[in-house]
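From the shared-data thread, chain only:
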Amino acid sequence: MLPQVFKNWVDSQYENPRGPVGKYIGEKMVRQHRIEVEWTINQLQMHPNATVLELGCGAGDALATILQQREDVTVIGLDRSKTVLASAEKRNATSIRTGRAHLIQGDVHQLKIDDTSIDHVFSVHTLYFWEDVATVLSEIKRVLKPKGTFVITYCDGKGDMQWNGIADLIHEQFIPEATKLGFQEVSVRRGPNSRDYRTVAVIGGKPNA
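Structure, as tokens:
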């Protein structure tokens, strides 16, 4: 059994990777999350010439995957961790030089992005760390263009075990707040299991006007 203080430190590294251990965790998450990342990208249904924002881009694997699939798309990756952003910069160096990829160090609660400049917003496994769901959703609405969409992917259990906390967060906070902000067609979509973890996404769109 790991001492609780050490376990807390490890958990904090997943929220905000730091130093050599953080770099290792960033690459570990690339390997572990491949299935749900690829599924999430497929749910985006990207417009031609779209600008796509990833909240919590980590080591930049999802950004690189999109850029490989779509030559017409521009991506922006935001993360609070300098450590994983360094890995993302290395992984996407060519696209950054050509202007197809941009990286921002920042917080999901206050996006350093212009109003109505993004076509699609997505995030994979960051929802657990949102301190204020309403604030993040408000920021997503602000940066999205009319008819822009979001896909927020998370896990709500493992095997036969249901994680009621995250399920309650979605149904009692996320969906009501998204609806209050005017997002349309807000719904939960079931994805493939990944390492026996149950993949889910909540999706929605900004009205045309």
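Residues 5-12 have pLDDT under 50 and may be disordered.
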